[in-house]
Amino acid sequence: MCLLPYLAALQALKRKKRYEKQLTQIDGTLSTIEFQREALENSHTNTEVLRNMGLAAKAMKAVHENMDVNKIDDLMQEITEQQDIAQEISEAFSQRVGFGDDFDEDELMAELEELEQEELNKKMTNIRLPSVPSSSLPAQPDRVPGRMPSVPSSAHRARAASSRRAEEEDDDIKQLAAWAT
């Protein structure tokens, strides 16, 4: 039996275990270095933020050094007063100036109604009304009490309907003429 292949395999297995251990150590070291690099970056960022905040505070202090809160209040009051004056001037310009043109509303409305009525009368005089027969209607025969009236003929009924329509038209025309005048 040859032990040589067995020993070579054992040596290779030991090397593999050493390499795995070294790899684990190197990975841990790299993780530690990465963590420290991130911490340094954060510290540098915090330092820059703090420095910039200090510069901003100094700049704001320098800007506000010449400002007085009372002066600002006074200035704002002056601006408000000037805006009020400008508003008053604008309102004064927009008000209607009366050069004796104050009229009584009731008189104006009455005059307007008169003008409208005159216009309507003019329109009504130009309307051609239908011709209406000028003859009087026939008298209705006397009825004797207790007697049944005879049944009228269709011609008689047509004349009665026609005369009723003529009377209604006469009434309508009279109302229209009364309204127009």
UniProtKB/TrEMBL annotation:
Residues 123-181 are annotated as: Disordered. Pfam families: Snf7. It is found in: Cytoplasm, Cytosol; Late endosome membrane. InterPro entries: Snf7_fam. Keywords: Coiled coil, Cytoplasm, Endosome, Membrane, Protein transport, Transport. GO terms for biological process: late endosome to vacuole transport via multivesicular body sorting pathway; protein transport; vesicle budding from membrane. GO terms for cellular component: cytoplasmic side of plasma membrane; cytosol; ESCRT III complex; late endosome membrane; multivesicular body. It is a peripheral membrane protein. This is Charged multivesicular body protein 4c. It comes from Camelus dromedarius (Dromedary).
